[in-house]
Specification:
Helices cover 39% and strands 12% of the residues. It is of the alpha+beta class and 697 residues long. It has 2 domains: 76-260, Biosynthetic peptidoglycan transglycosylase-like (Penicillin binding protein transpeptidase fold, Orthogonal Bundle), CATH 1.10.3810.10; 320-325 and 332-663, DD-peptidase/beta-lactamase superfamily (Beta-lactamase, 3-Layer(aba) Sandwich). A hairpin with a 5-residue loop joins strand 1 and strand 2. Helix 3 (92-102) crosses helix 10 (231-247), helix 5 packs across helix 6 and helix 10 packs antiparallel against helix 11. The relative contact order is 0.10. The model is unreliable at 1-15, 33-57, 128-132 and 637-697 (pLDDT under 50).
């Protein structure tokens, strides 16, 4: 009886379980049908809803750029230079270059590439942002030729269906021909024929592989990768195109390597017709918008762009250019040395003023020039020390040191014995800075610099920045004025870094908001450490290497001069404004003895006096240095030990260092300099988790 009952229960259980499964399956099928129906309805509507036909007959409209007060400062439009050509006129190598770098499965897909979309989605998820687009050449053509640049799901669906429609109506060759005649190459050039004439002064059919690879790399960011604006970046992009061509079998490895080294003969760039106020800033804003929305949107769709620029500060910045001497005129007719100046509100990241050079070229040195920072890098070493129990009164022995044959020297050529961290900053002393970095590990200063927005470190390969020479600013590449100025803003903003912002909001011609930017900030160091560093850098201006930057109100800053006087810097700040000044020759040759504590400090002073004239002076907030609870003394490098002792500040310095400080000299000994026979310091060990490489750029 029990067996029978159990069997009955098992049958009923199995039956009820099967019924439940069928119910769930049925519900799932109904839901799938509903979702499919809704999706098909949406897709059909999108496919049949080409952008409002009225837009097709709207006349092109210039875009307006406004300053922070809503005053129009520029009217942006372009004279379109477009010369269509047949695909037969386009060299096979140019066709291959575009396919390799833009859409390597172009000849295999039917307009949309699921693999490319999946790869882009994976890349973007890993990068927590939009790093890769996944659009095919056909989709790019559909977007550029037929659609607006708004980033909405509806427009993306329209792009997909238009791409599929294009593939049904045209051959691959016809699509590629339309694409190559449509894309924007900067300098007002649309299409490969206009681009060939603009950059090389020849017809497209006469281009060689070197020129083809260069052209194929430009559309990714037409201003940044234009060889007339930024030849180094254009060459690096060309190398990427050649690597892609090699990867997909269009050229051999030897051909790729040979072409990477080939000389590029360019047309001499035409001078800008408009060199009015804020021209470099306007170009920078324009290019950021082109990168995001496309050239047609910027030049033809009547956008209204509201920026962070303060015109009073901008005019003050541009007036400082007159302080520059002219030592020579280069082959492009530009006076040398050149300069850059950037001013930022450290609390919201707003770029208030920007000078990218003197002259009317399109190379914006404030954002594009990657130059050696020299001693302007040292504050990142100091802040790392303060975050690791050092105080401004920690004592370091300024004595000779040998690091695998590298013997760093102070600019004075002398050693001062025991000095405080405050004195090291005040007089920009090299040897103690190296000893601090050696004790901490160079990864820590690099990490903090990365967290504050420096994105140009090289962390891998035989030549990289994970060596002690970096503590003196001897970087593999260098920094841009915009990024190092923004990084110093962290010190002014109590240890919180705010990413630089140039565009507040963008509206379309109908007043619809396309984007509105909010400050992106993160806490990097403690408020106490930032206050202690500021206190030390105030001394730099009061009685150190930066006395020429004194503006008669609380301010902090740091000088920077590289070996052979190739680069000279002054970067400094008040509680509410941070500004950076760079001076140097475009060809990276030595200036005539220009040091950071001299001309750059004077330019900074002249600008800051005018920029802050209408605001009351105020002190920096935050705690000040303490004599207790931190590292008392960093012993001689031979012992490599730390001991805690209470120390008092040392205000006496050797006569040689006083003389050095008076001159404003803080020129570092650069172990990477070819004229220095001492080898560079060796790379340091890999960082611990959370160290270098984990920083947000």
């Amino acid at each position: 009886m029990d067996k029978h009952s159990n069997a009955s229960r098992q049958k009923r259980s199995a039956k009820s379980g099967g019924t439940a499964k069928r119910v769930i399956l049925g519900f799932g099928l109904v839901l799938m049908v509903m979702i499919t129906g809704i999706g098909c309805g949406f897709l059909t509507a999108s496919m049949n809803t080409k952008p409002d036909l009225a837009n097709d007959i709207l006349p092109p409209a210039s875009s307006q750029i406004y300053d922070i007060n809503g005053n129009e400062i520029a009217n942006v439009h372009a004279a379109e230079n477009r010369r269509p050509v047949k695909i037969a006129q386009v060299p096979k190598q140019l066709q291959d270059a575009f396919v390799a770098v833009e859409d390597n499965r172009f000849y295999d897909h039917s307009g949309v590439d699921p693999r490319g979309i999946a790869r882009a989605l994976y890349t973007n998820i890993r990068g927590h942002g939009v790093a890769e687009g996944g659009s095919t050449i056909t989709q790019q053509l559909a977007k550029n030729a037929y659609l607006t640049q708004e980033r909405t799901l509806t427009r993306k669906v329209q792009e997909v269906f238009l791409a599929l429609q294009l593939e049904r109506q045209y051959t691959k060759k016809e699509i590629l021909e339309m694409y190559l005649n449509q894309i924007y190459f900067g300098q007002g050039a649309y299409g490969v024929q206009a681009a060939a004439q603009t950059y090389f002064g020849k017809n497209v059919e006469d281009l060689d592989l070197n020129e083809c690879a260069m052209l194929a790399g430009i559309p990714k960011s037409p201003n940044y990768y234009s060889p007339l604006n930024n030849l180094q970046a254009a060459q690096e992009r060309k190398a990427i195109v050649l690597d892609q061509m090699e990867k997909y079998g269009y050229i051999t490895h030897s051909t790729a390597e040979k072409t990477k080294k080939a000389e590029m003969k360019l047309v001499k760039p035409a001078k800008k017709s408009d060199s009015g106020v804020a021209s470099y800033f306007i170009d920078y804003v324009t290019q950021k918008l082109i990168d995001k929305y496309g050239a047609d949107a910027v030049y033809k769709e009547g956008l209204k762009i509201y920026t962070t620029l303060d015109m009073d500060m901008q005019k003050a910045a541009e007036e400082t250019v007159s302080k520059l001497p002219t030592y020579k005129t280069d082959g492009n007719g530009l006076a040398q040395p050149q300069m850059a100046l950037v001013a930022i509100d450290p609390h919201n990241g707003y770029v208030k003023a920007m000078v990218g050079g003197r002259g009317n070229d399109q190379f914006n040195r404030a954002t594009m020039a990657v130059r050696q920072p020299g001693s302007a890098f040292k504050p990142f070493v100091f802040i790392a020390a303060l975050e690791n129990k050092f105080t401004p009164n920690t004592v370091i022995n300024d004595s000779p040191i040998d690091i695998n044959g590298w013997r760093p020297q102070n600019s004075s050529g002398n050693f001062s014995g025991k000095v405080t961290l405050r004195e090291v900053a005040r007089h920009s002393m090299n040897v103690p800075t190296v000893k601090i970095a050696q004790k901490l590990g160079i990864d820590k200063p690099i990490y903090y610099a990365q967290e504050m927005g420096i994105s140009t470190f090289v962390l891998e390969g035989p030549a990289n920045d994970r060596q002690l020479a970096t503590s003196l600013g001897g970087m593999t590449k260098g920094v841009t004025p915009l990024e190092i100025t923004s990084a110093y803003g962290t010190f002014a903003n109590k240890g919180v870094h705010v990413d630089p912002v140039v565009i507040v909001k963008v509206l379309d011609r109908n007043g619809k908001v396309l984007e509105q930017n909010e400050p992106k900030q993160r806490s990097v160091v403690s408020e106490n450490s930032a206050a202690e560093l500021t206190d030390m850098l105030e001394d730099v201006i009061k009685k150190g290497t930066g006395t020429r930057a004194n503006i008669g109100r609380p301010a902090a800053g740091k000088t920077g001069t590289t070996s052979n006087y190739n680069d000279a810097w002054f970067v400094g700040y008040t509680p509410d404004l941070v500004a950076g000044v760079w001076v140097g020759n475009d060809d990276n040759t030595p200036t005539r003895g220009i040091m950071g504590g001299m001309l750059p400090a004077e330019i900074w002073q002249a600008f800051m006096k005018k920029a802050t004239a209408q605001t009351p002076a105020k002190n920096f907030d935050g705690s000040r240095s303490s004599n207790y609870g931190g590292v008392g003394e960093l012993e001689d490098d031979k012992k490599q030990e730390l001991k805690k002792t209470d120390t008092k500040k040392k205000d006496d310095k050797k006569d040689a260092d006083k003389k050095d400080a008076k001159k404003g000299a803080d020129k570092k000994s650069d172990p990477n300099n070819k004229q220095n026979n001492n080898p560079a310091a060796p790379p340091v060990a890999a960082p611990e988790p959370g160290g270098v490489g984990k920083g947000r750029n």
